[in-house]
TrEMBL record:
One of its GO terms (biological process) is DNA recombination. It comes from Mariniphaga anaerophila. InterPro entries: ATP-dep_DNA_helicase_RecG, DEAD/DEAH_box_helicase_dom, Helicase_ATP-bd, Helicase_C-like, NA-bd_OB-fold, P-loop_NTPase, RecG/Mfd, RecG_dom3_C. Belongs to the helicase family. RecG subfamily. Plays a critical role in recombination and DNA repair. Helps process Holliday junction intermediates to mature products by catalyzing branch migration. Has replication fork regression activity, unwinds stalled or blocked replication forks to make a HJ that can be resolved. Has a DNA unwinding activity characteristic of a DNA helicase with 3'-5' polarity. Keywords: ATP-binding, DNA damage, DNA recombination, DNA repair, DNA-binding, Helicase, Hydrolase, Isomerase, Nucleotide-binding. NCBIfam families: PRK10917.1-3, PRK10917.2-2, recG. GO terms for molecular function: 3'-5' DNA helicase activity; ATP binding; ATP hydrolysis activity; DNA binding. Its EC number is 5.6.2.4. SUPFAM superfamilies: Nucleic acid-binding proteins, P-loop containing nucleoside triphosphate hydrolases. This is ATP-dependent DNA helicase RecG. Residues 284-447 form the Helicase ATP-binding domain. Residues 469-631 form the Helicase C-terminal domain.
């Protein structure tokens, strides 16, 4: 059966090869299906009419009824235009055409009743409408679609060739007319009945030609649901599939090391959130299925400790673990804190980074291969093929969004027979709705509680005029023994201007505080220099660190309790939150000062106000998603999922997404391979949808 929606767009009446080429190039519309799934971005209610006397230039559009009393051609050559004086019983305005002057002049009729639709503007004190839509009463009667006008995004190139929104709408109506009875229903009847959805054909008809708002709402719901449901079904089916195909190691024992650490070595009580997550992990690793878990927790919530205790579980069951961090300094920090936690337990922990010497490397390699070393911590150096484990059972990945998908996949292959369990830790809080889509095949744990005794960071927004006050405050804090970060934006590390600002900032700070040592770190320094600068700060030799966002991820200096962010309006919300997370690690009250100029956009203002209002990473992530849209969020690009949603909006349609996921889960629980007759449409739909860019089944 040649499927109706698969036909080449050039065969749609009115399109033809030239316009087909343009549609393909500008909007990626190649088939009937591509076109009908190209949805309007807005609708205008054309049941409303305006009086000319109430029209002003700020109105987005107007619809008026009246007559043309006079017309005149002005100018010559390409400057030629046609103007017409249009009257109703309240007044008059001007209609203007720059294009198709001759044609308009021949076809427009004086003193005939017209309906005029368009965007009013002001030109030397008078209101006019440029290139209005003109319809006679009879035309309007013939075309009962005109209640809500649908608008489509078109490109400049399309407009140049007169391929306007209105023509796209005409194509849509032609297509729907032709397609009556030929558009295959994609969802099975049991879902449609259960959720009282309108049929696909109806939904597609209404979306391009709505007659009232209730119908439109129902059509949009149906299409949004379908879009999100198919994604969820796909992701969850892959997950089922993976769990069936790959076995996982079973860590059945909670053994000697785990218990000894918990009872005798752990210097504090676990938070309830940490306990809850450990239980979830325990359940995962105890059922012969590979664990793929994403551990989300705000900076400082104690994820590393959870990872450590999971490593002890592996150890008690005879397996090795590794932890991979995105930078050398982070790897070192993990190595230090884990070694400290475990000191006296008789467990061998190793560190492998790019700067590990060849001689040390050899020793490490041998210890790993022979199983004398139980835990390895490192950077992506530990992905290299020369690193061979005797029996790797667990891979922990810190700060997930810094790693590419391919790097993660490589770690999987470090154990031949059965892939190790995977725990991914991230401090970038991902809103639930997004996590359900991007990481839909991972199980997600959340640590939503900070260890007790932490004082919430106080955040303030200062304009430039309070710089003196800021310096006084910094002086005070340093007299109390605290250390300070001052961060400058360096969006791309090669921007010369930014580097100059940073160096200028460094100079000013050094002058303002002549008695203290000021350090500097930025992305263009050599790794060893960076390392050195960070170490000096960590050891308290430098009291102020002037830096770029290179300090963003994970570095722990408990004595640093003040974070100043310069030109804060230039940072994204999640980045501001990450930076703020560098302070507030010790027992002292910590501060974050956001410096900005007076002239900032409304959006920047909202971002800064959000930072001042809340410390909650998830709330911040939600606001961020609403301001920026999900496709733009840090982490989603590398995830490999294109956010090519046509109608659903992850920021706004969380409820529908949840419903879609629940329904998908229900169906797969009863029919994991979609073999039942009642789900046949679904199998067809899944097979027909384009494959995502990478093979989900092989990735953590
Ligand atoms: P994250 O990796 O989530 O940013 P860490 O695991 O580095 O957080 O923990 C931050 C700090 O809090 C560390 O110094 C750690 O030892 C400490 N910590 C972790 N869990 C607890 C707890 N339950 N009670 C007190 N302190 C804790
Ligand atoms: Mg951390």
């Amino acid at each position: 059966m040649a499927v109706f929606l698969d036909q080449d767009i050039k065969f749609l009446p009115g399109v033809g090869p030239k316009r087909a080429e343009l549609l393909a190039k500008e909007l990626k519309i190649k088939t009937f299906g591509d076109l009908v799934y190209y949805f309007p971005y807005k609708y205008i209610d054309r049941t409303k009419f305006h009086k000319i006397s109430e029209v002003h230039a700020q109105m987005p559009y107007i619809q008026i009824k009246g007559k043309i009393r006079s017309m005149e051609t002005v100018g010559t050559g390409h400057k030629q235009r046609l103007t017409a004086r249009f009257y109703d019983d309240s007044g008059s305005l001007e209609l203007v055409w720059f294009q198709g002057v001759k044609w308009q002049k021949e076809h427009l009729v004086l003193n005939k009743d017209y309906i005029v639709f368009g965007k009013p503007s002001e030109f030397s004190g008078h209101i006019n409408v440029v290139h209005p839509d003109m319809e006679t009463e009879e035309e309007k009667q013939l075309k009962p679609s005109g209640l809500f006008q649908a608008f489509y995004v078109t490109s400049e190139n399309m407009k140049k060739k007169y391929l306007h929104s209105k023509i796209i709408n005409k194509f849509q109506l032609t297509l729907i007319q032709l397609g009556k009875g030929k558009i295959r229903e994609t969802l099975p009847a049991h879902i449609i009945n259960r959720l009282k959805l309108v049929s696909l054909e109806e939904a597609l008809t209404i979306i391009h030609k709505p007659e009232n708002t209730t119908d439109l709402r129902n059509a949009r719901f149906r299409l949004k649901f379908e879009e999100l449901f198919i994604i969820q079904l796909k992701i969850l089916a892959l997950k089922h599939n993976r769990e069936n195909k790959f076995k996982g190691f079973r860590f059945a024992e909670v053994g000697f090391s785990f218990n000894k650490f918990y009872n005798d070595f752990l210097p504090f009580e676990l938070t309830n959130a940490q306990k809850k997550v450990l239980k979830e992990i325990r359940r995962d690793v105890n059922r012969n299925v590979q664990m793929n878990r994403l551990l989300q927790g705000d900076v400082g919530s104690g994820k590393t400790l959870v990872a450590l205790m999971t490593m002890l579980l592996a150890l008690d069951n005879g397996y090795q673990s590794c932890l991979m961090a995105p930078t050398e300094i982070l790897a070192q920090q993990h190595f230090q804190s884990i070694s400290n936690f475990l000191s006296g337990m008789g467990i061998k922990v190793g560190l492998l980074t790019g700067s590990t010497k060849t001689k040390e490397r050899k020793v490490l390699h041998k210890a790993l291969e022979e199983g004398q070393m139980q835990i390895l911590i490192g950077t992506h150096a530990l992905i290299e093929d020369t690193v061979v484990f005797q029996n790797l059972g667990l891979v922990v990945i810190d700060e997930q969004h810094r790693f590419g998908v391919a790097q993660r996949a490589k770690l999987w292959q470090k154990n031949d027979l059965i892939p190790p369990h995977v725990l991914v830790m991230t401090a970038t809080p991902i809103p639930r709705t997004l996590a359900m889509t991007v990481y839909g095949d991972l199980d997600v744990s959340v640590i939503d509680e900070l260890p007790p005794g932490r004082k919430p960071i106080e955040t303030h927004h200062f304009f430039e005029n309070r710089r003196k006050q800021l310096n006084n405050f910094l002086q005070q804090q340093m007299e109390k023994g605290r250390q300070i970060y001052i961060v400058y934006p360096l969006i791309t590390e090669s921007e010369k201007m930014d580097l100059k600002n940073l160096e200028e900032g460094f100079r000013q700070i050094s002058e303002a505080f002549p008695d203290v040592k000021v350090g500097m770190v930025h992305g263009r320094m050599k790794p060893a220099e960076k390392e050195n600068a960070m170490q000096q700060f960590k050891q308290g030799e430098t009291r102020i660190m002037v830096a770029t966002t290179v300090i963003e991820v994970g570095v722990d200096v408990p004595n640093a309790s003040v974070m100043v962010i310069e030109s804060a309006e230039r940072f994204g919300l999640s980045q501001l939150h990450q930076l703020r997370g560098r302070v507030g690690r010790g027992a002292e009250q910590s501060y974050c000062i956001l410096m900005s100029s007076y002239k900032i956009s409304t959006e920047s203002r909202k971002r800064l106000a959000t930072m001042v209002r809340t410390n909650d990473g998830f709330e911040i992530a939600e606001v961020d998603m609403k301001l920026r849209g999900p496709g733009d969020l840090e982490g989603t690009q590398q995830s490999g999922v294109g956010f090519d949603l046509k109608i659903a909006n992850l920021g706004k349609d969380g409820e529908i997404l949840k419903l879609a996921r629940d329904v998908a889960q229900d169906i797969l629980a009863g029919d994991p391979f979609l073999q039942k007759e009642e789900n046949r449409e679904l199998l067809t739909t899944l097979k027909a949808t384009k494959h995502t860019e990478f093979d989900w089944s092989s990735i953590s």
